[in-house]
Amino acid sequence: MTVSIEALKEKFRNPGPAELELIARYAMLPESGQRERAFFAFAETGLPHRRMEAWKWTDFKNAIGAVEASKHASQAAPLPTPNAAIIEFSATGVTLPDTLPKGIKLHQREDSQALGNAEDVPLGAMTAALAGRVGGLDTLIIEVTEQTDTPVHIIMRGDRDEANFARVAVIVRPGASLELIESHVGGAGFSSFLIEIGMQEGGHVRRTVFQRGSADEAQAITAVVNLGDKSEYTQTALAFGAQVARLETQLKHQESGSHATLNGAYLCADGYHADYTSVVRHGAPSTVTRQLTKGAVLGGGTGVFQGKFYVPRTVGQHTDADMQHQALLLEDGAVVFAKPELEIYADDVECAHGNTSGALDPNQLFYMRQRGIPEADARALLTEAFIAEALEDANEGVEDALLDAARSFLAERV
């Protein structure tokens, strides 16, 4: 090991029990300059906490007293994908499909891979450092060389494990396309998933994410996406939260003509926390971003939305971007934090954002009850209709499954 455990401890500021456990896990992995750089980037902040502006509402350090096994197994079945190529990550290893669709190649890398701008994604940097297994897979690379209709389904699932860390890199070659589905269904005390997506000219990715954890788990899903010339990226996510859960997307338009859609919905019950955070950098002219996030929170639940569009001078000209966040507070004691941001330095752009929060419309409830619909059913139907718009761009095969999951949640709790 190039650095002793004692020296590693000194890299952290007042490391807690969870960080000491992460240091011990790192010390067990093979030596690597790339792994070391990622772990040192993580050590700059340690587990994110409320004194960090971007994490002030999602305090992982406080939530994770120690890296302990979850009391629960997976909280839901993965999304149904009968025709997909399934890749499953657990705390003990990875299961790969026996056959792959034409146009998709898998590359298993045992050596650690570099992570650019690791300081911007502390939990992504942590995952890049700790995803490796002694003598086993560090990074799974999915290379897409042509258009394919067969989805790739990534499952993150535990069974009362302490931790589950995984790293995936997706390379989309010119003109190729990928249907990517992810099911993050809990079962580990601390799970963290890092996915890096690089899209070349004319590439297309549609990513659908389903997240559900238990009230004693911490979950992090970090995506780093780079768009090439005239490429298109569509992301749809449905989150039910955990003790603390964060779905973070760092997206950069690297070349002109690229288009990104970032949609999502969150449903949080008592004791659950879901955080949608995104940063979109319009680093090329004539790029487009559309973002719609909707949430519904019950008493004792917490929803967080943080969205930022950054448009630099000169290269950001002709940007077209719109960000909307809308939330329902279904009961007293529900909490929603929202911070939409536009940071614009170019002068020829069309950028907008909107943010609203409130309760269900009493007139609509009265109308439905007048027609014989019980109040609980009426509230569930209105909430389902409210969030459904944010799920419309999901993979066609799983959109109904997402709505069914939301419908079941609302029927039980609203």
Write up what this structure looks like.
Strands 2-1-5-7-9-11-13-15-17-19 form a ten-stranded mixed sheet, covered by helices on one side. A nine-stranded mixed sheet has the order 3-4-6-8-10-12-14-16-18, with helices on one face. The chain has one domain (69-358). The model has no long low-confidence stretch (mean pLDDT 94). The protein has helices spanning 5-11, 17-27, 33-43, 60-63, 122-130, 362-370, 375-388, 399-413; strands at 85-89, 94-95, 104-109, 139-144, 152-156, 161-172, 177-184, 188-199, 204-211, 218-227, 232-239, 244-253, 259-268, 273-282, 288-297, 302-311, 320-329, 335-344, 350-358. The termini are far apart. It is globular, with a radius of gyration of 21 Å. It is an alpha/beta fold and 414 residues long. The chain has eight helices and 19 strands.
Over all CA atoms, what is the radius of gyration? 21 Å
Question: Helix content range of the residues, please?
Answer: 10-25%
Describe the main β-sheet briefly. 10 strands, mixed
Mean pLDDT across all amino acids: 94
Strand content: 35-45%
Strand numbers in spatial order across the main sheet: 2-1-5-7-9-11-13-15-17-19
Q: Unreliable segments (pLDDT under 50, ≥5 consecutive)?
A: none
